[in-house]
């Protein structure tokens, strides 16, 4: 990372660096090469609460690190890949089929396929997953 302009001469301790770049670099160093729940949510379209729930249930391997006075989950790309090879969110299946998650859940129940991973948010259940192995059995 190059220092800010006008601070490139003299002792290194006098150099100034852009705060945002330093924070980004330190954040990556603290969490390693993994992805945060927020980053995975942005990349996949899945809800952060669902991803966190899957982590809490042990469906996605992760590590926790301290961040801003709290805990942050960090998921390796290998762990995310293992998860995606084992499960598919019902919402993704529904979207691919051009239907609603509720309708997809009924279709799955009609084929005696159980879902896993759902957590409740008030009266609503979110984060239903279908095991890929269950889908493979009906093909």
Primary descriptors:
3-stranded antiparallel beta sheet; 139 residues; alpha+beta; 18% strand; 7 strands
Topology summary:
Layout: H1 19-31, E1 35-36, H2 37-44, H3 48-56, E2 63-67, E3 70-75, H4 77-86, E4 87-89, H5 90-97, H6 101-110, E5 119-121, E6 124-126, E7 129-131, H7 132-137
Antiparallel strand pairs: 1-3, 2-3, 4-7, 5-6
Q: How would you explain this protein's 3D organization?
A:
This is Transposase. It comes from Paracoccus aurantius. This protein has a 3-stranded antiparallel β-sheet. Strands 4-7 form a two-stranded antiparallel ribbon. It has a two-stranded antiparallel ribbon with strand order 5-6. The chain has 139 residues and is of the alpha+beta class. 46% of the residues lie in helices and 18% in strands. A hairpin with a 2-residue loop joins β2 and β3 (70-75). The protein has one domain (17-137).
């Amino acid at each position: 990372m190059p220092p800010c302009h006008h601070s490139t001469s003299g002792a290194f301790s006098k150099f100034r660096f852009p705060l945002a770049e330093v924070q980004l670099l330190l954040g990556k160093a603290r969490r390693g090469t993994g992805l945060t729940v927020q980053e995975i949510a942005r990349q996949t379209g899945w809800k952060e609460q669902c991803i966190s729930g899957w982590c809490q249930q042990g469906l996605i391997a992760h590590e926790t690190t301290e961040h801003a006075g709290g805990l942050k989950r960090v998921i390796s790309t290998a762990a995310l890949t293992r998860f995606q090879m084992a499960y598919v969110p019902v919402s993704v299946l529904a979207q691919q089929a051009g239907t609603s998650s509720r309708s997809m859940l009924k279709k799955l129940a009609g084929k005696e396929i159980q879902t896993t991973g759902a957590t409740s948010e008030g009266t609503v259940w979110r984060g239903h997953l279908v095991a890929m192995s269950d889908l493979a059995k009906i093909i």
